[in-house]
Amino acid sequence: MTDEFTCQSLAIDVGRSLPSLRVCAVLENLFYSHGLPGALRMDNGPEFVALALRSLCHRLGINGVYIEPGKPWQNGYAESFHARLRDEFMDEEVFVSVLDAQVRLAGWRRYWNAERLHSSLGYQVPEEFAATWSAKTASAVEDGSKTKVESGT
After folding, report:
1. Nearest CA to 12 among 22, 129, 76, 60?
2. d(C-alpha 85, C-alpha 13), whole Å
3. Which CATH number fits domain 20-151: 3.40.640.10, 3.40.1190.10, 3.30.420.10, 3.40.50.300?
4. Phi/psi zone of residue 68: left (φ > 0), alpha (ψ -120 to 50 degrees), beta?
5. Residue 17 phi/psi, 5° resolution?
6. Distance from C-alpha of 110 to C-alpha of 1, rounded to nearest angstrom
7. Whole-prediction pTM value?
8. What is the pLDDT of residues 92-108, one digit of tens each?
9. Cα within 13 Å of Cα(27), Cβ side
């Protein structure tokens, strides 16, 4: 799961299979820790078109945006992220178990979020970009509140 705005990798789940209920559990954990997104962009894999995920989105008021089959350019950020994951990590590694893959991918995800510079973020790391954006947003909200108080509205 990636955040298209901050370029943060929010979760990478590893398993021999990823049924829709497991995808829903990962998403619910992310919603709890990061808040609800306005929309989820997804491909048409069976875990994403399943009734469980559609029900979760409907129940929480999240717009499920499905790319058209055979048109990966409609999900360009995810395609780019997966290409970098393959090139920078997966092609270099041999995993001895699911646990080994989980541990190594968690380390790569930390690298991606906290060390790897992203040109699309002005050569910042995603964590730095997200923190700066959050501070600017909080400051703008605070300034807006002060303006209303000062003007008497």
Report:
1. 22
2. 13
3. 3.30.420.10
4. beta
5. -150, 155
6. 14
7. 0.78
8. 888 999 999 999 999 99
9. 24
Q: How far is CA 47 from CA 21, 26, 42, 77, 135, in A?
A: 8, 12, 10, 19, 35
Measure CA 71 to chain center: 20
Structure tokens at 12: 């990478």
pLDDT digits (tens, 9 = 90+) for 40-83: 888 777 777 778 888 999 999 999 888 888 887 777 888 888 89
The encoded tokens of residue 126 equal 């995603």
Neighbour tally for 37: CB within 10 Å: 19
Beta bridge partners, 64, equal: 40
Q: Which two structure tokens, joined as six digits, stand for 50?
A: 């399943």
Residue 99 corresponds to which tokens in the numbers above? 């646990």
